[in-house]
Amino acid sequence: MDYYKISFDLLNQPEFADILSYELGEIGFESFDEESGVFNAYIQQTVYDKHLVDEICERYKGDFTLSYKQELIETQNWNATWESNYQPIEIDNILRIKAGFHQSRPEFEHEITIVPKMSFGTGHHETTQLVAKTMRNLRFENTQVLDMGCGTGILAIYAEKLGAKEITAIDIEDFAYENALENCMLNGCTKIHVEKGGLEKIPAVSFNIILANINKNILLQQISTYANHLQKNGLLILSGFFESDCDELVKASYNAGMEFVSKQMKNNWACLLLQKN
């Protein structure tokens, strides 16, 4: 699978990186990184639409000076780049996400080893870290968990490490499904069922906890489905959106029979914890 790398020069306007992450995520971009004032975004070649990127630049031209370069990256080079540059993610002292070539650090409560193939799915993004912190404060022992939009499986693996008895992990993308399977095997997981697809893959059971780290628009469309699949007093963790989106998501959750419990934030990104009435 080949990707386009789109590079924006943000040397004098770094505050625009969060906006770009959000806007580009809405049109299919999957992963992001920054280096020396350059913001890079990655998207599958078959999904990329230059006109949509130009529309974003036009929309914000009054606030920022935007120009970008595009580069086609073949699959082999794409994976090699991530593997060679990947650095461990350390979330307080509770969780460390590393590649197989990194040494273990026993001072962390839990450690997850992955095959790093995507930036957005390797724990670097703020939303993954926010969800992990929220999970750490909940009781997972003997729970039934759904990880919707599981990406490369990090949160599902963490749920098993926290004691969940059965986890269903679902993602619509081939690359995420395949990497999630790979990462589950690498961590010796035995309680995670990885499925490729969308809502139709959710089993007809009631979950104690549902994780959904996707984006605002998809979450708004799917919140009622999540609520229907939660047990009474079940918990829903949502992320993948900005703090400014929280009120809209809380309102939609309330309409679906859920109530607000707590919120965490990092660099304008947010994570909501909600409970079914």
Give, in spatial order, the strands making up the sheet with the most strands: 10-9-8-11-12-14-13
Shape: globular
**Helix-and-strand structural type:** alpha/beta
At the fourth level of CATH, the homologous superfamily of the largest domain is Vaccinia Virus protein VP39
Strand element count: 14
| Helical content (DSSP H or I, runs of 4+) | 25-40%
CATH class of the largest domain: Alpha Beta
Sheet bearing the most strands, described? Answer: 7 strands, mixed
CATH architecture of the largest domain: 3-Layer(aba) Sandwich
Counting copies of identical and different chains, the oligomeric state is single chain
Strand content: 25-35%
- First-residue to last-residue Cα separation: 43 Å
The secondary-structure element order is: EHEEHEHEEEHEHEHEEHEHEE
Radius of gyration: 18 Å
Short descriptors:
277 residues; alpha/beta; Alpha-Beta Plaits; Rossmann fold; 2 domains; seven-stranded mixed β-sheet; four-stranded antiparallel β-sheet; 8 helices; 31% helix; 33% strand; globular
Layout of strands and helices, then pairs:
Elements: E1 3-9, H1 16-26, E2 31-35, E3 38-44, H2 50-59, E4 68-73, H3 75-85, E5 89-91, E6 95-99, E7 110-114, H4 126-136, E8 144-148, H5 154-161, E9 166-171, H6 174-186, E10 192-196, E11 207-213, H7 216-228, E12 230-242, H8 246-255, E13 258-266, E14 269-276
Helix pairs in contact: 4-5, 7-8
